[in-house]
Backbone:
């Protein structure tokens, strides 16, 4: 509701400014600017009102978004009045956001029913969620109803996978009275955006909603068109950059410019993935090794290419050929997969879809090269497979772009 009110009020202000600055004749371009700004805010989660306040990043992004759309509008029309139009509209966005947030935002008291590692995981999760205030429950089950009433609890998180019949009866009564009750795996999915592989089983996989990408022909066709179009356009745009990079790689160290390596793709089928060589030619003279932070085998320009993802541009050819998708789990080598499958449950599930140039795990989890890191990345990969949508792909592209711009790749 807050979003709708916010957008309606902003639209009225935008319309009023069109009249005040005598820009009614440009209403069509104005409509595109307004819709573009609202869409950008929505995709970046800047239309959320369940947070106590905007961060500096939100304000900066909002300003950049307005500058871009109003700037394009100005370059098309050369109307000087667009500058004060932009300044007033930006001020209105910030003011309305602050007022609506102050009037509607309420911190929710949340408690956890459970113990052990599941409870600890939930506590860590809600510690960084400003909209929640954690109130610990240490009583007996027959005291839970009174505790909820006295402490004004709005949400109960279940830090256990199996409930007793008494627990089910008590918690169900609370839920039917209006209390929000959320299970452990559901919380991890909805708020952590990952699947905790240590606590799922075949029954969960059987009953879990989602996974549309595995069976929807239409969804896969749309994804393929999206991949082919984006890879082709990006390949043309970055061709000069790839030529320059190839020359620098050749000059900096002996060896080939392109490094090709067998990786495991969809349904466990191997294919050759291509990258600009970022390591010395003898990097694996002692056999296959995990990449590592500050890897001494990486050349100076190779380090720059990894941080900006330039080294992966030749994989656009893999995307065009259909061996990879633009978005998906990163492809890994068979020698590592065979070892990881022994140690991580359901690791092979990530091969149900095409691997990607970038993915949910890459933008959500920092670089790491241990078995534990591989498990954590798998949890994000499984979330992507379960919740895939074109919208999620676009979000990942935005996050990847931020990684490239700020040089935070590996």
Residues:
């Amino acid at each position: 509701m807050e979003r709708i009110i916010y957008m309606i009020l902003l639209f009225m202000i935008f319309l009023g400014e069109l009249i005040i600055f005598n820009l009614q004749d440009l209403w069509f371009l104005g409509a595109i600017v307004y819709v573009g700004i609202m869409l950008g805010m929505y995709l970046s989660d800047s239309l959320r009102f369940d947070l106590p306040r905007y961060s500096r990043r939100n304000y900066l992004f909002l300003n950049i978004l307005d500058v871009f759309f109003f700037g394009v509008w100005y370059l098309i029309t050369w109307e000087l009045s667009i500058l004060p139009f932009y300044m007033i509209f930006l001020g209105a966005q910030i003011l309305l956001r602050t007022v609506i947030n102050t009037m509607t935002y309420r911190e929710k008291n949340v408690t956890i029913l459970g113990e052990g590692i599941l409870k600890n995981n939930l506590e860590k999760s809600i510690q960084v969620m400003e909209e929640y205030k954690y109130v610990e429950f240490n009583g007996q089950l027959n005291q839970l109803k009174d505790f909820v009433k006295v402490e004004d609890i709005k949400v109960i998180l279940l830090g256990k996978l199996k409930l007793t019949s008494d627990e089910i009866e008590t918690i169900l009564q609370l839920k039917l009275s209006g209390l929000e009750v959320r299970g452990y795996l559901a919380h991890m999915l909805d708020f952590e955006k990952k699947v905790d592989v240590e606590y799922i089983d075949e029954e969960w996989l059987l009953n879990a909603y989602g996974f549309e990408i595995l069976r929807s022909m239409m969804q896969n066709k749309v994804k393929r068109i999206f991949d082919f179009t984006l890879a082709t356009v990006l390949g043309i745009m970055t061709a000069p950059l790839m030529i320059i990079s190839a020359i620098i790689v050749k000059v900096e160290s002996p060896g080939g410019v392109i490094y090709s390596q067998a990786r495991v793709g969809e349904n466990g089928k191997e294919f050759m993935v291509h990258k600009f060589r970022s390591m010395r030619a003898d990097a694996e003279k002692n056999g296959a090794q995990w990449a590592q932070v500050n890897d001494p085998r990486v050349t100076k320009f190779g380090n720059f290419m990894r941080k900006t993802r330039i080294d992966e541009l030749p994989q656009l050819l893999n995307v065009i050929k259909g061996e990879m998708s633009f978005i998906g789990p990163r492809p890994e080598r068979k020698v590592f997969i065979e070892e990881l499958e022994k140690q991580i449950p359901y690791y092979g599930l990530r091969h149900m879809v095409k691997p990607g140039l970038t993915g949910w795990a890459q933008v959500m989890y920092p670089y790491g090269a241990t078995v534990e890191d591989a498990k954590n990345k798998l949890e994000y990969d499984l979330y992507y497979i379960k919740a895939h949508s074109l919208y999620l792909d676009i979000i990942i592209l935005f996050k990847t772009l931020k990684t490239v711009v700020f040089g935070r790749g590996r």
Summary: The first strand starts at residue 108 and ends at 114. The chain has three domains: 2-104, 108-192, 213-405. Strands lie at 108-114, 132-134, 153-159, 180-182, 258-264, 270-276, 325-327, 356-358.
